[in-house]
Amino acid sequence: MIVDVRERFEYASGHIEGSQNVPLTKLKAFDFQERVYIICHSGARSKIATQYLYRRGYDVINVKGGLMKWNSVVPSRKV
């Protein structure tokens, strides 16, 4: 599962197909059981979110470089 921690308006402007939007400001409502990949635009917010969720016992992985990196690595899947 991929969780995008950008704000809703950012997510609406383009996102990874199948990802869930849980803005960084709403992480207290986060409740997933499986491993989750956390992404944002550049990787800064996802790093904060990953640290926060990891300390709370979640199995999370930060997608370093965010969507900017995703789009450069997977050009056919641009958001």
Automatic annotation (TrEMBL):
Segments forming domain Rhodanese: 2-79
Domain of life: Bacteria
Gene3D superfamilies named in the record: Rhodanese-like domain
Protein name: Rhodanese domain-containing protein
Source species of the chain: Listeria grandensis FSL F6-0971
